[in-house]
Amino acid sequence: MSAASQVRLRADGRPLYAQARQALRRLIEDGAYALGDRLPSEPALAQQLGISRPTLREALRMLEDEGAIVRRHGVGTFVAAPRPRIDAGLELLESIDRMAERAGLHAQMGALVYREFPAPAQIAARLGLAEGAAVTDVTRVMLADGRRIAFLTDVLPQEYLRGDELAAGFQGSVLDRLLARGWPALSHSRTELSACAAEAAVARELHVKAGEPLLKLEAQLFAADGRVVDYSTSYFVPGFFRFHVVRRIG
Q: Where do you find CATH 3.40.1410.10 in the chain?
């Protein structure tokens, strides 16, 4: 009996291709399919999972993008060697560049967009500013070894960062830029981690399908004097990141 035939997908609100991708990845990670193993043919695998072949192809495309499998035309689909993943503890505040470097990956910034505008009420509240205060918005895609892995947006009061400061030498990390400058003195970050479905605009930037699952981090960065320096929203592609938290007995 095939390993996949023991998997049954159930309606849980997610697209079937996302469920199939997760089920196949779990089989690979659990050793049901070992490195170099050939997966069953598309018709057989689709039948075993109870999904259509187009749905299966989308799941396989996602796994191929993540480096979990390799498809060889006319030969078959095989389990690939695990790709290095960025493993990070949420207790430590650091940039993607630093996390990628530890994993042996080369991180680089894709297209950078920055703009300055009066803060609307919601953003002003996050930054502890009056509505209409001048802010700088920094949006970019981050890549590791040429693959899009994260879409980042930072909004800061203009007193802490102006758009013209990003015209030269900016590598993608607002945190690293502030630390290198040495002002303001930074203290800590308050972060919320959640799973979300990729909205159309984010999906376009990350080259994934709208509705695909992403990891989302929303954070407020605080200065030593308690003021909010930065409000950021980060979207991470699963398969490239593994976050963990060290919890101590209280």
A: 86-244
